[in-house]
């Protein structure tokens, strides 16, 4: 069967990565979490005290960053490696979440990440989630999904996830972070978050995981059929 490129864009904490992982497993496709790359770059900037207002420092730092996804036998997922170190748990922490939108808005950072994402997808048979995958990274993808969900539901989902790792986190903190990230991601100059004209909107506020997967699996079948001739 023909292998396609599936892009999943949308706001923070809509469940993009959950859906992307399920689809990739079901179709035997490669899953790429583009947000992990921006998170790893942000972690490097924080650790190395890079002043990202200074473009010279940004360029020098990018020259010293090597990103790689490495398959984890235990979890069956891909872990993000930054300069040969597994940074998977660290990049999900609040210190990174608080800064990642700022770093991801820098044009040089985006060019650096997008070039690598395009290389990874060259072979097709991939599901990639992010903010600009259907608009900038793979504008010619066969299936583009734009995910959204009620903001209150998104805050609750994210809170649950973070609280499990850090019981000191408050609902207010999570809400503020999501709102700020959505604002910066949607309003930045360099490839802002927006729905591609040919993307299908998926509002999963009232869908179970199974309903969502069934619905999207049908879209995948349709996309493969219509691009097979
Ligand atoms: O998907 P995520 O929450 O892990 O993404 C982290 C941040 O990275 C998000 O706030 C915006 C940025 N990002 C981006 O600008 N472009 C992408 N393709 C993916 C993520």
From TrEMBL:
<keyword id="KW-0547">Nucleotide-binding</keyword>
<keyword id="KW-0963">Cytoplasm</keyword>
<protein>
    <recommendedName>
        <fullName>Cytidylate kinase</fullName>
        <ecNumber>2.7.4.25</ecNumber>
    </recommendedName>
</protein>
<keyword id="KW-0067">ATP-binding</keyword>
<dbReference type="Pfam" id="PF02224">
    <property type="entry name" value="Cytidylate_kin"/>
</dbReference>
<keyword id="KW-0418">Kinase</keyword>
<keyword id="KW-0808">Transferase</keyword>
<comment type="similarity">
    <text>Belongs to the cytidylate kinase family. Type 1 subfamily.</text>
</comment>
<dbReference type="InterPro" id="IPR003136">
    <property type="entry name" value="Cytidylate_kin"/>
</dbReference>
<feature type="binding site">
    <location>
        <begin position="10"/>
        <end position="18"/>
    </location>
    <ligand>
        <name>ATP</name>
    </ligand>
</feature>
<dbReference type="InterPro" id="IPR011994">
    <property type="entry name" value="Cytidylate_kinase_dom"/>
</dbReference>
<dbReference type="InterPro" id="IPR027417">
    <property type="entry name" value="P-loop_NTPase"/>
</dbReference>
<dbReference type="GO" id="GO:0016301">
    <property type="term" value="F:kinase activity"/>
</dbReference>
<feature type="domain" description="Cytidylate kinase">
    <location>
        <begin position="6"/>
        <end position="219"/>
    </location>
</feature>
